[in-house]
Amino acid sequence: MIINTNKNLIFIETWLLFLILFYPLRSLAYEKTFQLDDAGKHEFSFELDQYYSNVSYIFSLTDKSIPKEPYSNEKNIYYYLIKNIYMPQFVLLEASIYPLPIAGVYIKKNTAWQEKSQISENINIVRSITAGFPEPWAFSFFLGNVVDFIKEDKEVVGKGFSGLLFSYGNKHIVDNTMVDDNWFETEIKVKGSDVRKTRDISWSYAIGYKKHYHPDIKDALYISIKRNRIDYILEGGNPILNIFTKNSEQEVRIDFDPQMLGKHRITRYLFLFGKKLVVSENVALSLSVGALKTNSSGYSGRLKQRVDEHWSLIFRPNVHINF
To answer: Among 22, 50, 20, 25, which residue's Cα sits nearest to residue 111?
Structure first.
């Protein structure tokens, strides 16, 4: 039996391109949490998403269960999480993987699709959809506080975290190319979510430091802001302010080289803004558009030559269903 490897490779490439171009349009994030004991001190959860999928285990360092707080408004929740950040009572262990960034690496290494998808100097379809994470996976240890957000009938509708996050990985991605790199990351982080019939909110704020052990990758000090909100029922508020606070997504990340001074201190920029279009009581369409720039000043040696310093377009279409 003779196997035509060329035809098989073309078949695989075609399906991979299909997934790259159309999977984000149809993908749905899914999250599930399991309480492992009656006292509420141990939880296991997993989340499936095209950019960030993970499994995690939470356990209490004390005899207290995860506290439950009503979600009144975002400002009050931020205050609650930050004021208790110095008294860690929970540990979270997490393993995460980033499917589309990994797919982008595979596409560039094994096919010609990334080259063929170059529309202009700043627009490459494959890179635009797969970019966003400079690593393919990570293992994390969180030490801090955890809170369950509840509604009037005491049903848990979300979760909040505040504390220190320590992460490790052994690979790094630069321009959809994966290189060996043992890295360690430390973050002060506040994040949370609130999902109910009328709205879907998630947010994450972090200041971090990333230590690289690859000789050609420089360490980074960074600030990261992410916020995503869908209002299935839009109620009141300032119409102008609602453009930025409701049915919208914002993401900003700026990386600095802590050892450099002057105009080349910033090594990476990521800006993203999106809007949601609610088409029914539980379905919303979204489109986020942004820009990414990686400066060669964040690298040295051979890796520095791989960096394309042009601003690159990023776009992330998606469909959100509130089950």
So the answer is: 20
